[in-house]
Amino acid sequence: MVGISPKKQYELITRGIEETIGGDALLKILEEHERNVKCYWGTAPTGRPHVGYLVPLTKLADFLRAGVTVKVLFADIHAFLDNMKAPIELVKHRAEYYRQILIAVMKAIGVPTDSLDFVLGSSYQLSEQYNFDVYRLSAFVTEHDAKKAGAEVVKQVANPLLSGLLYPGLQALDEQYLDVDFQFGGIDQRKIFMFAEQYLPKLGYSKRSHLMNAMVPGMNGSKMSSSDADSKIDFLDSAEDIAKKIKGAYCMPGEVDGNGVLAFIRAVLMPISRVRNEAVQMGETLDEEWVKPMVPSDAPDGTLFYISRPEKYGGSLYYDTYEQLERDFKEQQVHPSDLKKAVGDALSALLVPVQNMHEKDETFRKIKALAYPDDEPKEKKKKVAKVNPKFARYVLISDGGLAKTEEEAKENAEADGVSYKPKKKQGKPPAPPTEAVQNLDMNK
What we know:
Elements: H1 6-14, E1 19-21, H2 23-32, E2 38-43, H3 54-65, E3 69-74, H4 76-81, H5 88-109, E4 117-120, H6 122-125, H7 128-138, H8 143-149, H9 162-177, E5 182-186, H10 190-199, E6 209-213, H11 239-247, H12 260-281, E7 305-307, E8 317-319, H13 322-330, H14 336-360, H15 362-371, H16 406-415, H17 435-438
Parallel strand pairs: 2-3, 2-5, 3-4, 5-6
Antiparallel strand pairs: 1-6, 7-8
Helix pairs in contact: 1-2, 3-12, 5-14, 5-15, 7-9, 8-9, 8-10, 9-10, 11-14, 12-14
């Protein structure tokens, strides 16, 4: 963003961030005016991404407006190393699926994707220098530190594979090889970030800053996870499925703590509306094909969230701050059913362009099928009765035998001196035509 002070840039970069480590180093780069601050956000293409990804994807818009050079890493090697969450045969397809669907989601949010640099991890993580640094790092890191660093991210098992222990080290090295000033991720990445701050200087590399966003709670109150279908809402869920999942979310009247629906509004829906409103205020043109309104066009300026209600129940509500919404809910001025419906409507509107892409783009559907073959509908196999091999020549192929036609089956049976009895057809014979039908003149 041109024309704002380093302090304002820093405020925009850290707005809504749960925790910032090394903020002074970032502010110093901004104040020196010698170059843009550089960052990366990475994701390992394992399970299908869900609406929890809306939090970091929306935040990328703030970085871009603050003049940050942003790289998005599709960490395919990490995906394979994470205790075989993604078999190596599927990693390539899943990385491409992630790339296409996350770009589509960012367009739907209003993030200018043409300003982002997309990087595939294997494009540099298989190089000689990178691998040598992995070995160098292994000479410093203990098994205890590696396991501790990945505790919140890498799948934990009783007997961890060596691949999972390598994961934190690779993520630390990414900061150097992507040439960034800070890494952005969820608060669940904190231990890996601290690992990077401790060990990169031992390799002679500079310590980077780290920014963390809060995790989006799932609809059942736990962390939203790709591996837990009940906790997540997929980007390709239908409006009906979205409404059903939100309807089942924990949201008791007047209860604010542990309320996943309110948390989703605060962490996801309101920041998206804010990014869009600011884009319009700055004179940016939003792509109407991709950016679908989540609030009505006649809503008051600055509206971030909207609840549609009949006049007999108090009329529609418009909120420009989360605090006012939380206060109204706590005082039971807003009913959980109205809140859930509003969230479902807003989220469904946001995701319409993404789902349209899925419906219309055959190439994308093929990539999805290759990336997640287990998610594709299975064809029901016709049960074929077992036939005694002794009599197979007298039975049709369609019934589990060897004969192509009834004539062939009969000839085989007679040649062997066996009496042939054709299999009875299933079902009732058609009823004879009524007298009215028989008397119809078909020439009329």
